[in-house]
Amino acid sequence: MTPGTDTIFIVSKSISQGKKAGIFSALGVMTGVVLHTILIKKKGQALINSRHL
User: Fold this and answer.
1) Distance separating alpha carbons of residues 39 and 46, to the nearest angstrom
2) For residues 13 and 21, is the Cβ–Cβ distance under 8 A?
3) Angle ∠(32,25,28) on CA atoms, nearest 5
4) How confident is the model at residue 48 (pLDDT cuts 50, 70, 90)?
5) Is there a contact between 24 and 31 (Cβ–Cβ < 8 Å)?
6) Where is average pLDDT lowest: 19-23, 26-30, 38-42?
7) Residue span of the structural domain in which 29 resides
8) 3 or 51: which carries more pLDDT confidence?
């Protein structure tokens, strides 16, 4: 398995700007993943509910 763009982004931030920047980058990436997951779940559920009508 190869690292994805998220991993490359976090590692490059950590190397160029230090540990703190790497941690904040990782938190930002995780926040984006969680938000996208929540939105997809809501939209998917709405789609499933509209099909049952």
Assistant:
1) 11
2) yes
3) 20
4) confident
5) no
6) 38-42
7) 5-51
8) 3
